[in-house]
Amino acid sequence: MTDLRPITALGTVTPGYASFGALDLRENAGLALASLALRRGTLEPTPFGLTLPEPGRWVAWQGVAALCTGPDQWMIEAEGRAELDFSAELKQVAPGCSVTEQTDGWVAIEIVSRAGTGLEALLSKLVNIDLANFGPGGATRTGLEHMSCFVIRRGDVHAAVLGARSSAGSLWHALETAAKRLEEKVA
Amino acid sequence: MTRLAGGLINRSQSLNFTFDGRRYQGHPGDTLASALLANGVRLVGRSFKYHRPRGVLSAGSEEPNALVELRTGARQEPNTRATVVELFEGLEARSQNRWPSLGFDALAINDLLSPFFTAGFYYKTFMWPKGLWEKLYEPAIRKAAGLGRLSMEADPDTYDKGFLHCDLLVIGGGAAGLAAALTAARSGARAILADEDFRLGGRLLCELETLDGAPATDWIAALETEFDSLPNLRVMRRTTVFGIYDHGIYGAVERVSDHLAQPGARVRQTLWRITAKRAVLAAGATERPIAFADNDRPGIMLAGAMRAYANRWAACPSETVAVFTNNDDGHRTARDLASKGVHIAAVIDARPKATALADYRVITGGMVTASRGRLGLKSIEVHANGRSEWIECGALGVSGGWNPNVHLASHNCGRPIWNDVLQAFLPGEDGPSGVLPAGAAAGHFSTAKTLRSGAAAALRALNVLGIAAALPSLPRSEESRYGVAPIFHVPGRKRAWVDFQNDVTMKDIKLAHAENMRAVEHLKRYTTLGMATDQGKTANVTGLAVMAELTGKTIPETGTTIFRPPYTPVALSVLGGGDAGPHFRPRRLTPTHHWAKAQGAVFVEAGQWMRAQYYPRPGETHWRQSVDREARAVRSAVGLCDVTTLGKVDVQGADAGEFLNRLYSNVMATLKVGRVRYGLMLREDGFAYDDGTCARLAKDHYVVTTTTANAGLVYRNMEFARQCLWPDLDVQIFSTTEAWAQIAVAGPKSRALLARIVGGFDLSNEAFPFMACAELTVCGGLRARLFRISFSGELAYEVAVPARYGHALMERLVEVGADLGVTPYGVEALSVLRIDKGHAAGPELNGQTTAAMVGLGSMVSQKKDSVGAVMSRREGLAGDRRRLVGLRPVDPAGKVVSGSHLFAEDAPQSFDTDQGWVTSACYSPHVGSMIGLGFLENGDERLGEVIVAANPLEGESARLRVVPACFVDPEGERLRD
């Protein structure tokens, strides 16, 4: 194991965290990511037991999840496995597929509403997504403050935004600003 | 005039405000305009061109006259329509476009000079001499004309934006809009009701007619209660839908805190982009005036507005009023005002027959032919039945009919359709799809009809969407008559205003006609009719009618100008809608950014990236000192530079090699595993556009690097090629630019430094030669990639680790390399090193240069086809004889300035004799003087020649010697060492 000490996308040793009213923002630094693409003539695999989802969808199963990112392409997420060589693991269970390590290409920010409200109000300030058709299991690529992101609806009160790692600070600022304004409006 | 009885203002509370420094009082529910009228203030502004005294014309967002500077300090906002400003405690407003005071305006001299200020005045008058236009005429005109003043301070407020989606968007909260919203809300459809007013009801708030025998406000209050209970309906007050865009997207501005003295913690406004499957356009109608001589005096206003001020705001500009109308609606104003105790001097009805709605004098077949009262109306001259009389009145309500607000339905180049009965344009069929006009916007002018049409429009929209809905029971209401006559102006010789805001008179339109500016678009530009903040809402149709009359055409034949967003003015701040300052746009930080910052690096923007430009050390007072030191360190010891920003594309698949063969001009398929090759990409038109290295990690796995600037473009082109050009190839690509932190380790001691972190990995020349690559581990087990490539011309490597370790790796390299003289260097030194070596970069690959020009002509393989290869051989392009050369000043202390143009010595300096230009220049510590790269005609055949680099912008000229475009180690021994 290396003796180098990693930093998170937000540039600190501990992941970013902030709370605004009922909304929590949390940098998910432990999330491993790898992209998976089918090669010609390859059968669609079921890595780690996942049935790969249709466009616009996200599925999760026992700490691993997948979202569709394009024709015959998916992003595979693995909770808490950023420090492992997850893409190598994925390659093992997706024979004949192209796998690309993506863990450090992204920042993942989890948004959770403790009170069960406010999540959609927040998202409506950030992304042009029809939230009525974006229930749990929804996932899409969209623009957020001029940044290209994946937005995932992990649950009724839980969404995640995956953005480019280099602009993690700008993404965090955008989410924080919107959440803060929402808190002030409620107050 | 004091307040009338009734109205929808809260008299239990008073609000203090000032206008031009004078203190007044109003009440919650007032607008600034209604409060001014209630305080007896008729004069509120000066007109744009002639500085004519003006008063409030309308009671809504169409207002052309009552424009004020609102607030003070940084929040001072010019051209604010007093008719839509909600009164708040402490409001400060000032009139504009006057000096020294509103009552006495010196520039009113313009009014006397009006014969000179006719249509086309500027075009005709300031033609000569041409050179004076920019420096003298235009500034002088701008100073004299113009409306309010900007604070010239930064906007202190914050603005927000957001996105909404719905089945049905109802635009307008009047009778039709409320009925539509009710229908949609009860059906369970997702609906949004947006209205620009702070109170729902539209014209219902301005009329005395009852609904189900009770005041309309009772019905509205009941609806609001029901609306509050329905989660599927979002009611947005103070929200103007200002434009319709492609694919059912509606732009709307919500004025969140404009009605407060200060926003406090709130945002000022929010820009909403609403995606609606259908929309009901219930935007109402705008009354138009009738043009007659001196019809712009304060106190002359729209009859419907006069009624609105009396009924909703309990305000009237005078105790004695008259009404001039060509339709029945004008009589309703007289009736309502009479019922509130206002004396009706007369109703002048232009039609031959008319019936009074109450006990007042009616003059049928009458025309108002003149008016008196310099700062406020005193009397009007009425001509009827062959005789004239002067009638005293302090205010005149004018109704020339109502124009449905077709604006939004006419966005996307929609054309409204003329209706002869209504003498107005109705929404056309060719505007934005999915928009259903209803109510007055669709030409229904009675409350009963507007209610029915609103509900019916919603029902139609919901049916199309497959949402079951029922027609709600609607309240009983009046079925008033309208009966408009086609009278737009009163013939006469004196000036009669058509467009109040731009001071466009009947005479101007006649002049435009006489000078052949007859097409409506010409009419608009020549006279300025319909321009500025009100966009001619009260003027356009009248202007068209007059032009139609002059040309002998019908109004529909005359046509309309194009309607464009925004419907009403929108502040640029809210369109920007977000952060200013450092967060104005996203910033991309490299993995070593925080480390570099801690070292005191100076950063430079490279697109969105922030890159370390150089690392000043104590004692260094000039950037050149830092950059020279960094460059020397690389040439003599070892330097470190974060090069993460270069694009990295992971290319996999059985056909990856073939795919890259087609993208790169040179062959990539033959690249051996574990090797790197320099590659050049061409555009389809044959010009060079990007270069970089391509590493083969496995038989079916390459990593392509691109320039920083083109990382996105190359990836996009690769994706296009993969999906659209050659979908038959088995290839998969992913951007991994961000996933890996990549650090260049360059200099003669780079191998020694790297050896300290790569464990047992063999870095010897034999095991890992120039252009080798490998996957390995560093720093005790961290997976990494190593490339032996060199931008500087020195022995060099680039090492990549997962991005989160980039910071720590940089720290480690600096720590373990201290004794080797390891030196971090920024992009400035990086640039010096590459100019030394003659490597082409952005300034050379600028989209206008070919492979041959940068000396890479042989890289365009003849053995295979690739993007741009055929076009690169086309006549003209292939014949370009400019070549990249090195340039050294003949005088070693001389300067080389990039951008300078190259000429033969003693040749005249002109476009015809231009032989090229300097692309890059720097001071090279290695050479000991400034050096440059440049493109020169037949440059490769002119080595040794002395030429002239001219910089006429700064009057500089330098003699340069043409040398090979490589100043360091031309044989490339160092990088292979």
Summarize the SSE layout with pairings.
The complex is a heterodimer of chains A (187) and B (977).
Chain A: E1 17-20, E2 23-27, E3 32-38, E4 58-61, E5 64-70, E6 73-78, H1 86-93, E7 97-101, E8 106-113, H2 119-126, E9 139-144, E10 147-155, E11 158-164, H3 168-186
Antiparallel strand pairs in A: 1-2, 2-8, 3-6, 3-7, 4-5, 5-6, 8-11, 9-10, 10-11
Chain B: E1 15-19, E2 22-26, H1 32-38, E3 45-46, E4 53-54, E5 67-70, E6 77-81, E7 91-95, H2 109-112, H3 121-125, H4 132-144, E8 159-171, H5 175-187, E9 191-194, E10 210-211, E11 214-215, H6 216-229, E12 233-236, E13 239-245, E14 249-254, E15 269-281, E16 285-287, E17 300-302, H7 303-311, E18 320-325, H8 329-339, E19 343-349, E20 362-364, E21 366-372, E22 379-384, E23 387-392, E24 395-399, E25 402-404, E26 417-419, E27 424-426, E28 435-437, H9 447-464, E29 497-499, E30 504-505, H10 506-514, H11 520-527, H12 540-551, H13 555-558, H14 572-576, E31 588-589, H15 593-598, E32 602-606, E33 609-614, H16 623-636, E34 638-642, E35 648-652, H17 656-663, E36 676-682, E37 688-698, E38 701-705, H18 711-725, E39 732-735, E40 740-746, H19 750-755, E41 773-778, E42 782-787, E43 796-802, H20 806-816, E44 822-824, H21 827-837, H22 869-872, E45 882-889, E46 901-904, E47 916-924, E48 929-937, E49 946-951, E50 956-963
Helix pairs in contact in B: 5-9, 7-8, 10-11, 10-12, 16-21
Q: What would you note in describing this structure?
A:
The complex is a heterodimer of chains A (187) and B (977). Chain A is 19% helix and 36% strand. Chain A has 187 residues and is α+β, with helices and mostly antiparallel strands. Chain A has a single domain (17-186), classed as Probable tRNA modification gtpase trme, domain 1 (Gyrase A, domain 2, 2-Layer Sandwich). In chain A, helix 2 crosses helix 3. The longest helix of chain A has 19 residues, at 168-186. Chain A is globular. The mean pLDDT of chain A is 96. Chain B has 977 residues and is α+β, with helices and mostly antiparallel strands. Chain B is 21% helix and 27% strand. Chain B contains 22 helices and 50 strands. In chain B, a hairpin with a 2-residue loop joins strand 32 and strand 33. The longest helix of chain B is centred in the middle third of the chain and has 18 residues, at 447-464. The model of chain B has no long low-confidence stretch (mean pLDDT 95). Classes of the chains: A alpha+beta (187), B alpha+beta (977). Chains A and B meet through strand 3, strand 7, helix 2 and helix 3 of A and strand 8, strand 31, strand 39 and helix 20 of B.
